[in-house]
């Protein structure tokens, strides 16, 4: 019987060793690293201000949120307003692809311009990024559907006649507070899943042309090895997005680019630069 892997004289055992050598090395990080990632992200944002493509994208982002809110109000689907606006942020890591490229170029001392940011669209790894973005979109759709099921199981199918009636029913009844507690708890679980999947996966794909599966695995490993720090990062993201929602979501034109740049620097702190791995 022919020996396994005869052409390269590789056995399953040596293949496992090789795979382990190529696996990204995860560092332990602290709160100081999170603070430094935000500082570097803010420096990136200030260094490339008023770039039309970046700013248009992130001014359109909150504007679309407002349009979406108006559509929801117009169709009397008030129960889905909060789930839609909250869940829309799940797509943030995918929307920040251009920002990762700008931070990478500044890190290398290269030109960082709006057109350089668009080069990510021609990356050989863009297919993997698109696949991972589709996964986040699926999570978003499932979240909205779940939120609708929670609302119907609590209040039934009777529509709200307006904002005052809806607010009164949610905030002044036992069923309303049950809806808030259950909805926020389930939404928290969706947010945790999204964080575990995407906390370093998009920067890793962009930087090292990793597959989507390898990037997700590395992201889960990063969270498992740094549970407290990653929980703190998730809280920071949530608080900044909340602050960016005021007034009228326009603050997100600053908050989301800041988080995008900072995520790149968080990736650099979490994933060690392994010389055995191909980098750009």
Describe the model.
The chain has 280 residues and is mostly helical. The chain has one domain (39-270). The protein has 14 helices and no strands. Helix 11 (201-208) packs across helix 12 and helix 12 crosses helix 13 (227-244). It is elongated, with a radius of gyration of 21 Å.
Keywords:
single chain; 280 residues; 14 helices; 0% strand; disordered N terminus
Short structural summary:
The chain is mainly alpha-helical and 280 residues long.
Please identify the structural class as seen in this structure: mainly alpha
Ranges where pLDDT stays below 50 over 5 or more residues in a row are 1-21
Written as H for each helix and E for each strand, in order along the chain, the element string is HHHHHHHHHHHHHH
Outline the biggest β-sheet.
Answer: none
Domain module tally: 1
List the helices and strands and how they pair.
Blueprint: H1 12-22, H2 31-47, H3 52-74, H4 81-87, H5 92-95, H6 97-107, H7 114-117, H8 126-155, H9 163-171, H10 174-198, H11 201-208, H12 212-225, H13 227-244, H14 252-270
Helix pairs in contact: 2-14, 3-14, 6-11, 6-14, 8-10, 11-12, 12-13, 13-14
């Amino acid at each position: 019987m022919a020996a396994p892997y005869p052409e390269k004289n590789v056995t399953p055992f040596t293949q496992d060793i090789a795979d382990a050598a190529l696996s990204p090395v995860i560092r332990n990080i602290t709160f100081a690293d999170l603070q430094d990632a935000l500082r570097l992200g803010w420096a990136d944002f200030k260094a490339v201000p008023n770039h039309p493509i970046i700013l248009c994208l992130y001014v359109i982002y909150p504007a679309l949120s407002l349009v979406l809110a108006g559509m929801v109000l117009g169709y009397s689907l008030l129960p889905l307003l909060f789930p839609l606006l909250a869940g829309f942020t799940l797509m943030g890591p995918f929307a920040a692809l251009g920002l990762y490229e700008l931070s990478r170029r500044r890190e290398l001392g290269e030109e960082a311009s709006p057109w350089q940011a668009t080069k990510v669209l021609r990356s050989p790894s863009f297919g993997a990024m698109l696949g991972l973005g589709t996964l986040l979109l699926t999570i978003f759709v499932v979240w909205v559907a779940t939120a609708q099921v929670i609302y119907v199981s609590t209040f039934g199918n009777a529509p709200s006649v307006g904002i005052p009636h809806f607010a009164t029913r949610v905030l002044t009844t036992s069923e309303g507070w049950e809806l808030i507690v259950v909805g926020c708890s389930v939404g928290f679980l969706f947010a945790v899943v999204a964080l575990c999947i995407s906390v370093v996966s998009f920067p890793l794909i962009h930087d090292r042309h990793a597959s989507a599966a390898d990037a997700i695995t590395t992201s889960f490993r990063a969270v498992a090895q740094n549970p407290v720090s990653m929980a703190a990062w998730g809280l920071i993201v949530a608080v900044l997005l909340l602050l960016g929602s005021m007034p009228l979501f326009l603050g997100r034109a600053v908050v989301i680019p800041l988080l995008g740049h900072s995520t790149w620097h968080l990736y650099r702190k979490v994933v060690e630069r392994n010389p055995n791995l191909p980098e750009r």
